[in-house]
Amino acid sequence: MISRIAGGAAALGCGALVAFSLPPWGWWPLAIVGIAIFERLVAGQHRSVRFRRGWLFGLGWFAPGMGWMWFLTAPGYVVAAAMFAAFIGIAVSLAPQTRTGWTWCFGLPAALVVAEAVRFCFPFGGVPLASLAISQVAGPLATIARVGGPLLLTWATFQLGVALGLFGRHLGETWRGGPDPSGRHIPAAVGGVAVVAALLGISWVAPSGTGTGKRIEVAFVQGGGPQGTHAIHTDSQIVVDRHLAATRTLQPGPDLVVWPENVIDVKDFLTSKAHDQVAAEAARLNAPLLVGITEDVRGEDHFLNAQVVVLPDGTVSSRYDKVRRVPFGEYMPLRGLLKAFGAPVDQVPRDAVAGTGPAYLDTPVGRLGVVISWEVFFAGRARDGVSHGAELIINPTNGSSYTGTVLQSQQVASSRLRAIENGRWLVQVSPTGFSAFVTPDGDVHQRTSVSEQAVRTETVELRTGRTIASRLGDRPIVFLAASVLLAMLLTSRRRARALPAPAGVEGA
Prior knowledge:
By secondary structure, the protein is an alpha/beta fold. 45% of the residues lie in helices and 16% in strands. Strands 1, 2, 3, 4, 5, 6, 7 and 14 form an eight-stranded mixed beta sheet that branches. Strands 8-9-10-11-12-13 form a six-stranded mixed beta sheet, with helices on one face. The chain starts with a helix and ends in a 10-residue tail after the last helix.
């Protein structure tokens, strides 16, 4: 029997294994190992024990994995880590158990997927970072994302970890001469592994997009500069000048040049000096420049965050306004209420206005999907661009206000997921790093270092066609997970009437 303190500490450590499987620290197997050990800590326990250990598991996972949020809002970081850990605790406490292990083996992963789906959309539109899916993007399970997106990849990872935990339980009880010498958990564990193997097999033959035969040369421009800077404390012209200086090192040849998110901060871009400077570079290179701008709207109390296409003749031919805004970064939720309690709402002095358009830009080289910074963590934004015919995806971002590389590394991993899910090349570009090209298989090319000034070019293929994930979206996976959980709960109740209570239940 494990004591309350030892069990809680072990659950916290299992969560830490998941955290350290995430970029920038980790190695993908750590997540599966952490889940497998955690399964042993909560199997057969009372619901209250499962909730406590589930909450500690979640805290060990989210506290390090979401450490970047400290630089955005320290109180929000504490609340978010505790709340999202509670989602995990509730899911674990709800998962059904039977003596043979079938409902537990399939019900627990399904419950955890539902919890992650809730986290991806609540509160304030969701915070889908530090996700289990991005921990696996460098591992063999990553291709499952092209079948069912990040939630199916999450499900497969949980399923594999729980099944391995059941195998471990059988071995441990057999070694001790316990109640499972006949291997009553083995069929469920084999079934769990078989499901993951089947998903992996499907992903290998599933549609992954098709090359159009057209290749273009794309250049991204990373202006460089220090981290930990904020727009309200920085002369925006300095940022523009860094990117102009870097762009001037380019010789004519690229078909497309991409700048990061909100490099240019002006009242009106078309009438600004920055527009003339960008247009001059577009004319010199004889190529469209895609630049990130912020413009005042509704006076000076609000702003728009957009990516625009500037042609060699100076025309702005296409524009995309960012739809998903960063809570507490680009807008202040509950501003009036928080101000009444003395919160420092002036750190976000004005709110971004959310765009409403589809996620693409039209350029002379073709239609491009665009996900601006925060949007890359939401599978639906990239999927929206591809559904409108985008043949390449760009992710202009700006992580210069964060110190360290936790958020930036997770963003690269998310870009890899979006590329796999949609079967497209993806270009990520940031003013201070990381910037990179990502292949449709999720391989990263020419990743830059933090704070360096860099210009990189890559020949990329424009692609068409749809993956299963880009057609399905997340809702069918959520519905399936909820249905499996409900079915396992009903099965568990029926069996509970015929079977005695599980042996070895602890009360601490």
